[in-house]
Amino acid sequence: xxxxxxxxxxxxxxxxxxxxxxxxxxxxxxxxxxxxxxxxxxxxxxxxxxxxxxxxxxxxxxxxxxxxxxxxxxxxxxxxxxxxxxxxxxxxxxxxxxxxxxxxxxxxxxxxxxxxxxxxxxxxxxxxxxxxxxxxxxxxxxxxxxxxxxxxxxxxxxxxxxxxxxxxxxxxxxxxxxxxxxxxxxxxxxxxxxxxxxxxxxxxxxxxxxxxxxxxxxxxxxxxxxxxxxxxxxxxxxxxxxxxxxxxxxxxxxxxxxxxxxxxxxxxxxxxxxxxxxxxxxxxxxxxxxxxxxxxxxxxxxxxxxxxxxxxxxxxxxxxxxxxxxxxxxxxxxxxxxxxxxxxxxxxxxxxxxxxxxxxxxxxxxxxxxxxxxxxxxxxxxxxxxxxxxxxxxxxxxxxxxxxxxxxxxxxxxxxxxxxxxxxxxxxxxxxxxxxxxxxxxxxxxxxxxxxxxxxxxxxxxxxxxxxxxxxxxxxxxxxxxxxxxxxxxxxxxxxxxxxxxxxxxxxxxxxxxxxxxxxxxxxxxxxxxxxxxxxxxxxxxxx
Length: 544
Fold this sequence. Notes:
Blueprint: H1 25-50, H2 56-68, H3 77-102, H4 123-130, H5 142-167, H6 173-185, H7 193-222, E1 228-231, E2 238-243, H8 247-257, E3 262-267, H9 277-280, E4 285-288, H10 296-300, E5 306-309, E6 325-328, E7 337-339, H11 345-353, E8 364-367, H12 371-375, H13 378-387, E9 392-398, H14 407-415, E10 420-425, E11 439-440, E12 443-444, E13 446-450, H15 455-468, E14 478-483, H16 487-498, E15 505-507, H17 516-526, E16 529-530, H18 534-542
Parallel strand pairs: 2-3, 2-5, 3-4, 5-6, 6-7, 9-10, 9-14, 10-13, 14-15, 15-16
Antiparallel strand pairs: 1-8, 11-12
Helix pairs in contact: 1-2, 1-3, 1-4, 1-6, 2-3, 2-5, 2-6, 5-6, 5-7, 5-16, 6-7, 7-16
């Protein structure tokens, strides 16, 4: 195997024996095979689209299958094999769709991925085939190969957001169309390095639309989030812990647990759910448990109830809690009960059987500070900036992870001057969201914008401030310090680059799939750089 799509890449270059995430070599090969097959689907779906022919099943499979290959999602080889089988079926369906719209067969050269290659019947043979189509085989030029991988990982991240929106009944044909176009482009030998750079920028712009679509879906369904204190203690009673990102799944679980004496807690990226009026109306949604995803091994053993993942980031389960752990949606782990559909009775039964919590009072943390809430304070914020009460804004967000060096983000938040405000999002906030940073004239110094997809809210806040001060985003008193881990972080970064946002810091390490030449391009055009020491970085950003 060879995998370098996440920040944990072994040795800073790539995992070759087993994924640091826990991904086994057979799963890695099957996921490489899925991506190879999806390129074939994309080739025909893109050509069919050019003829005006669209198929919803093909579109939805594309995002579901890409999401399957995101880090810490599907670790089950049997599940991945089924996705590979369906991918070949969708390739044939997409080809038939094109030929019908075209009035006959395609007359040009058909790339190998889009050809009529057969999927082996046995899983071992599928694994052997997948090993021939790894990420190093995309292109012979290392820089082109690097940018193609950036594009692929951007599409994977966007597919996750598109999947969440689809579950809530929101679809945009332009988003599906771009993903088909992007993956099909990787089969076009005529395209060069700058063609793929352009596609990466287009990926970022398209993802802004995708995050906006998901934001619209959330607000229409659950109303705009409002600043909400969330308990990090526990209420006496039976308990279920929900980890992931999917709000619809949480809503259905809340409906089914109502009146059954079972309290529901959020974990990691589910914390922002407490800010939505349509979800916090459920009185048995009582708090947030634990810290970031990489600590689940030690924290889940102490949770006395049922636990369910609805998206990444699952790790190898511990024996102490495996029998009360469930997965849903794209997430799967061998030997862990997977819930298909919307019936959570097994999860509820496991919670009722478990010991449950004793009362454990604790402090609150604040969430629900999306762009609607922050822009509702716009006059107050603008006045504070003009008076000098607020000197600078810092976006400190992104993924958390297990590698050393992430205490940088804690120290950075702690050492910022008291006349600065932090906007944070995604699970990287768990490095500092329990700190008491106070407020500036009633404006909290720490504003939790939401999940990683709520980078859309951060962008809207920045654009609104730029409009208020009649300047560009790069001219604002605003600095961006990002932490990354997986492919959703990649597409968020591409979104920021597509807006021509410059001078960002990225850490804790730079991606292994970025070659020195590609890195130089990013530095020269966007002045992006790695995090250094807290003191030197802060001095540079504050202009001290």
